[in-house]
Amino acid sequence: MKVEVSPTSIKSALNTIKIVKPIFGDYSLTIKRDRFIFSSYDKRRSVVAVVNIDDQGKDLDEEFFISIDRASIFESDLGSLSFSINDKGLNIKHHGNGITKTALLKRRAVGSKRPSSPGIPSVTSTHSITQSDMESMLKSASCSALVKESHTEEDMKVNQIHFYSKHKSIYSNARYYASCIYNDHISFDASIVSADIPIIRFFSTRCDEQVQVNNEGDKLVLLDPKNQVYLSISGISIKKPDFVDLKVGESKHDLIISSDSWKQSIKWAVLTLEGTQRISMSVVTNEGSSELKLLNGDMTLSSYPVINRASDFASDFPLKVLLSISEYLSDGELRILFGVSGMPDVMVLEQNINGTKAHHFIRSMKSK
Predict the structure, then answer these.
(1) Which of 94, 179, 264, 274 lies in disulfide reach of 101, CB 3.0 to 4.6 Å?
(2) Are 213 and 129 in contact (CB under 8 A)?
(3) What is the pLDDT of residues 142-201, one digit of tens each?
């Protein structure tokens, strides 16, 4: 068997499966009669990318391994790439401009006890969501998901985001702060471990406009049928919390600032503060213009102009929480609400990004 394949399609498939670090240290390439199936998997996740080839006219089911440090053998500036199977394994040949480069991949040993590589997942129905909606929702939900702190299985049981199709919303809770995300295109129910969010976000960026989602049993499957790529993730079993609609009604204080200005002020406070995680925030109006100030005691660390739609206020907040949330805010306008009806000591950060509304709730600290 000898097959000519587009080098670009092979590179794209390998770049996709790299989002999951293989548990055995190498990627898998399974050759069927009309396709190459590249895959990588760990204990809970697997990713599969399919590259179509000319039908070989005979049944094939050969598996070969690509170690992580040898994956670059598929990268070459030569124009042609071909594969051939022989007794030694899979022969890879780059050629063009009179230059030839070859490499050999080992095949799966007969009788190997190693688990077979994941095949193309079988799904019966899917929910479709645009790539941009998926990105804006997951980025906003990450604010209160403790993505960087989900390492052990116990962490994963607690640090999850929850989709509620009936309420068109996603909820995440970091104990001292929380996020509620709304989008009319949320049409499936799921609970996703926070540590899986970066992988899902990266996978979604490689999809062709639409991301297909299937959530059956204990496994979430995302797929892009056009590019033939599939991501499967097993969940961590927990009792899904009941949905609580944290409605944001009238507030005593309502102001608008650019998201970039807010993030700059938080980063500056982190650089300048020593020995405390308490930051004072105040809004002061003078001669018709309003400023948002971040203070350490009587010292103003930063100030930015804001649109103030209500009276001035001052309160203290944990700087670490503000920094964590700010890392996931999108560019554009940021609305800050305080003294919301039913939540008098909670500040709400609100963003509306292309049909996705995000509310982030942070409880203020008691005054000293």
Answers:
(1) 94
(2) yes
(3) 999 999 888 888 888 889 999 999 999 999 998 789 999 999 999 999 999 999 999 999
Query: How big is the CA angle at 215 (ends 212 and 221), to the nearest 5 degrees?
Result: 55
> What residue has token string 């297909």?
212
Region of residue 168 (phi > 0: left; psi between -120 and 50: alpha; otherwise: beta):
left
pTM: 0.88
d(CA 296, CA 302): 10
Distances in Å between the Cα of 259 and the Cα atoms of 331, 335, 349 are 6, 9, 10
Q: How far apart are CA 198 and CA 26, in angstroms?
A: 21
Task: Give the domains, in start order, of the chain with CATH numbers.
Answer: 2-105 (3.10.150.10), 127-234 (3.10.150.10), 251-363 (3.10.150.10)
